[in-house]
Amino acid sequence: MKIMLRTSGGRGEYEIAGSQGAVHTSDLNMKRIYIELFPGFQFDSKSSLQIQKGQGKPRIRLEKGSKAIHAYRLLSSLLLFKKPIRELNKTIGGEVFKTNYSIISIDVDVVSIGSSEVVLRPKNITAKAGDKEVTISVASRIIEVQNIIDSVSRPEIRATFEEVKRELAQSSKPLEEIENQLLEIFQYVKENNLDFYYSDPDKLDEILIAEPKNENDSESQKDSLLEDIIRMRMVKIRGPKAKEFSRKIKEIYRYQCVFSGASLPSTSNIRVAGVEAAHILPWATSGINSPQNGLCLNGLCHWAFDVGLLYLTFNRDNSEYVVRLNQKVRDNPEGFSVEYFNQLLGPIPEARLPSNRIYWPNPDYLDQINSNVIF
Question: How far is 139 from 229, CA to CA, in rounded Å?
Answer without folding.
Answer: 8
